Every structure is written in structure tokens, then in C-alpha cells.
TrEMBL record, chain B:
Transport in keyword set: yes
Keywords from the UniProt entry: Protein transport, Transport
Cited Pfam families: ESCRT-II
MF GO annotations: protein homodimerization activity; structural molecule activity
Organism: Vitis vinifera
CC per GO annotation: ESCRT II complex
Family: Belongs to the VPS25 family.
Database matches in Gene3D superfamilies: Winged helix' DNA-binding domain. Chain C. Domain 1, Winged helix-like DNA-binding domain superfamily/Winged helix DNA-binding domain
Protein name: ESCRT-II complex subunit VPS25
GO annotation, biological process: macroautophagy; protein transport to vacuole involved in ubiquitin-dependent protein catabolic process via the multivesicular body sorting pathway
Amino acid sequence: MFTFFTHFQISESKQAFSEELFDFKAQAGQNRRSALSKPSERVGVRFRLPPLFSVFSHRRSMAGKWLPAAELTASGRPVLCPGEIESSLLSSVDLHSEENPNFPNFKSGILILTTHRLLWISDSAPGTATAVAVPLAAINHIFPLKKSIKSMFASPRIRFQVSAAPDGKVDAGGSNLAVITLVLRGKGDHEAFVSKFWEAWRARAWESETPKSGSSSGTGGSGSREGESGWSSNGLRLAGVSGILRKEQEMWESTDKSLQEAFQDLNALMSKAKEMVMLAEKMRQKLLSGPTTQPGANDEEMGSKQEMQDWMLSVGIASPVTKESAGALYHQQLSRQLADFVKIPLEKAGGMINLIDIYCLFNRARGTELISPEDLLQACSIWEKFDVPVMLRKFDSGVMVIQNKSHTDEEVFARIKSLALKPDALKTGLSASDAAMTLGIAPAMAKEHLLTAESKGFLCRDVSADGFQFYINFFHEIDPSDLYFVKDYGIYDTWVKAALAS
Amino acid sequence: MQKLGDLKLPNFFNYPPYFTLQPVRDTREKQVQLWKELILDYCRTQKIFVIGLEEEFPLFSNPVIERTLSHEAKEAFLSALVAEGRAEWMDKGHKKCLILWHRIQDWADLILRFVRENGLEDSVMTVEEIRSGTESRGTELHGMDRTVLMRALKQLEHKGKLAIFKGTSADDEGVKFSL
């Protein structure tokens, strides 16, 4: 291989070289991917690409080419496979294959690089977006960015070669070859993207997946696998009590080792992130089952169990959108990710959640790439432009909440009104905590609802040494010119009857 | 029915929010209206002419529900009465309020009626006699507040129905009717 490249350096015509290169590729088989990707070799591979291009168009005729589709969430964010992590994001990218006239022209979309795929998402409303993916496993070779006077003024183009099945569909195991071009028309750090692209491609995260799930480093079902064989990894018998003890011991050792490796440095931690999550999950299970088996579980244990549960809630997002990976589209992508994330806490909180609570939850889930309050606010305000099922709402008191669009005010007022007409509420009023308990929402939210109902005229406030209560409002039913008249079956009437009953 | 003095109290007097100054505009307007009426009715039945904000006023608290109006609320309701012309602040500090459950005009008319009914058209009376004399017993004039009476008399004087003059004793004045 090395000799081949030195040959190139003294080769007479570029055309000749291109043909040689082509043959080399055809013959090198599986090795060609690794052959051309080593940095030392890239040094020699600085040649003009157009001739190579034409070679392909002569020698290869493609049938209709297709890219596998990529799944999107309701907010237009890509659905990632387990273990897949986003690395970079660019806007205004065209994706096409020049040699194949039947290939659909994907124009001006968002390009997302992950550890496993290159995703292209069209820049339209979430419901109508199209998304396709190029599995990194299918890429054989990435052509380096050509540097010429012409390329300085034009949009940079990244070209790479993929394997395809005979019918043209891009497939890692395909025997045919095809070239895909990305035209980066948007602003952004193209050089950084290219280097990330190379890194992701070389890291081959999709391959390490299979052996990983096999060994699992003692987290998950490895115990059963070892048990099946009857022999531990040390070659010792796994029968009987000693076998069980030995199994436990080995699991602890491998967990320990994994922990040590993971925390050695930040890079190692990030690659081990998935394992850490599984480990934490296992610990949680243990904690959950532990106290119930012991009689007289004390408060301390329950407290730590609660803590673990809270921490679990936070470990949800493995692929945070960062300024680095998304650049100018940071707020847009963040906004979409936030819309997805917020769904579960919203359900738990009964349809409305304080912005501050979301700030804490979201940042906890992101782990290290925290967002600032301003970013959060901006992300929420962008929701108006998209068609997401959540909205930001500011109350008169200044409190800001995120609520489901389906969660209407009228519905809440109806519930509050019926609450205020109950006998207890008629006699002693409705406090924020009473309402919170009955409606199943946070007390601060309940108070906001009560205040809003008051401003609409449904309720009246009662401020005294006993506290702050709300009563159903019937002032409008009283006639100032006849103070003693009580209309039958009105709210005033209902209240009078209830008050007299006490 | 609950009573406060001679006044029958309406049901809403036991409604706790009635004793909290409502922040919502429409609700407050209604609340103010009800308080204005109640204050006037109470003062009329009890013949109260002056309300002092710094003193205890039976109408402003309800021991049954353990609620009392705040100073701010009292001032708000009384100011509403003043704005309507049914009361007047007696001092700049808004500490005392003169309640005109009859307007000055109404008092003036009552005095005139009293004079006619008792055939006092051309006679002379002291101010005290008008408000506490035997003739006025049984009428609304009896037990009238002196300030209010003087105001009514002055109004009638402007109309030329009577003349006020200084009497023999230092602090009493006399009135000569000339209807």
C-alpha cells in the first residue's frame, strides 16, 4: 500500500493514476476502507478529483438509488438508535449523487452527523419533513476536501463513496459502489465538521455495539449467560453456593474495573456513558428491592432510595444538542429536543409545569452540557414557530410555566368551580393546597389557577389570620337596592344553605 | 336573622370575602356598592352621623365569622360614599367621616316640613331647640348632629327661608324662620 502511494507521487498523468486507483479499489476488497483512511496515506492523496469523477460516470451506471429513511419524532428531531450519539449539525446542506440522474435531489436540509449515521432532514414543518440516513457502515471512502482557488469561493463539497445493493439502495453489504456529494451551503465550521465526520467514521461505533452487548461487563443479563455454560470466565466450576458466590464476585470485579476505566478521563467516561447508565439502573433496582425484604426499614434507607429514584429520572438524554454540534441552529434544535423531553414531566405534573422545574430536570438529564436560563427561554419562545404540542405561558404574577396546548383554561375553571361549590369549600373556603391535592398539581400551579379564576370573576378571596382562601363568587347575584333578597337556586342561595347547615 | 342594633343584617354579612377588599375590579365594584348601602342603612337606623376610622365601629367587624375590615378597606368604602356625595371627610387625614344618610338637601326639606307642620313660620327658635326640643321629638330632626343641622340651616339661609343670628348665650344660635 505504501509503495503504491509513492508510485503515485512520481506518476506522470493524473488520468493514469485515477485508473490505477480505481482498479486498486476494485481489487482491494474489504481492506480498501482501512487502506485509504490512515492519515499517513492521506498525505499522498492530494489530487484533483474531477477526473476520478468522470471515471466513475463512465464505468458505473447506477440504477435508481435509494437511501434508507430515518425516523423522526413529533417535533422533527431524529429518533436515535440505542447507543447512537449526535456529534455535529449543519444547515442548508444539499445531498445528491451527480452521476445518477434518478437520485432524488435533497436540497437545503439539515445534516446531522451521529456515531452511526449521517442524517439528512428536510427543512420543513415537523409533520411533513422527510428524513433519510446514510449508515456510516456503508461508507467505503471519504474524499478529502479539495483545496483550489475555485473551492475558496464556492460552497464546500464533501464527497464519499458508499456501498450499494444491485438495485441501487445504499447498503453496507452491497457490492456496487456509488458516490454521494454533500454541498455545504450554510454558514458553519466546515473543517470541523469534516474532521468530526472522519472521526465518527473511523471510530466505527456500530461495530463495537455487538461485542459490547455480548459482554455487558457484568451489567444486565451476563449472569445468566455464564450460568448457562456452567463455567465462569476463570474456568472455575459455577455449581452450587460457591459457584453463585464466585459469579457475584466476578460481577463485582468487572463492575469495579469498568468504573475505574470509565472515570479515568473524560473521553473514556463519555464512551462508557452507556454502561454507566445501565450500572446506575441496576443499583436502583437493588435499592428498590432491598428495603422491602428487611423488616423495619428505616428512614435513612427510604431517603436514599428516593434519592436514587430522583437521579434516575435525570439520566435520560444521552445525546445532548450542544452549541458545538449544532452551531447556528443551536436554539432550533434545542427547542425541538426540549419539546420531546418535556412530554413526560408534563404528564406527571398534570399538564402544567413550572419553567424552573423544567430547567432543573432538563439540565440534569443533559449531564455535562448544561444550558443557560436564557437558552431555555429562547428555546421555549421558538416553539411558537413550530407546531409542537406544548407552549410557554406567563401568568400575571410573573410565574412562567410550560403547559400542554390541549390543557385549556376553560376546563380548569370548570373543575375549580365545582371544587368551590363543595360543602366544605362553601363553609371554609378553598385554599391553594386543597386545590393542589384535588387537582393533582403542584401548589404553586394551583395558586396560579385560583388567581386566574379570581380575575375572571369565578372566585373571591378571603384574607385573614386563618390564611388565604378562595370562595365562590356570588356578589353579582346580590341586588344593592334589595339587600335581603336571595334568588332561588342561585349560587348565593347554595352558599346560604351550606352556611346555615354548619 | 342576625341584627346589629336595630338593623337586620343580610346573609352576605357572614360571607368572609365580604370583609376582604377584593382586587378584581368588577368584583370590587359590587362589593363597594353593597358596603355603601349597608353603611347608610346602619347609620340611619342608629342615627350615627360620624364614623371614626380609628375607633371600633360595630358594622365593620363580624365576630361570628371572625373577620374585620382593614383600615384600607374602611377608607375605600367611605371614600366611595364621599365620591357619591353621601358622606364627607371631616379632616385631611381621613380619620373622621360625616355620613349623610340624608343629604343636606333632604335635611333642609325636613326642617321646612317641620316648621310648616308646627306653625312656626314666623317664629324664632334656637338651634338646640330644633334638634332636642319637645317639638322635634318623634321627628327625624330629633338628635340630629349639630354640624349637619347647621349646614342645612345655612343652606336654607342662602335660599332666604330663614336667618341665623347669634343668641344670648355664647354657644347657641337662633333661627328666625321667614318662609
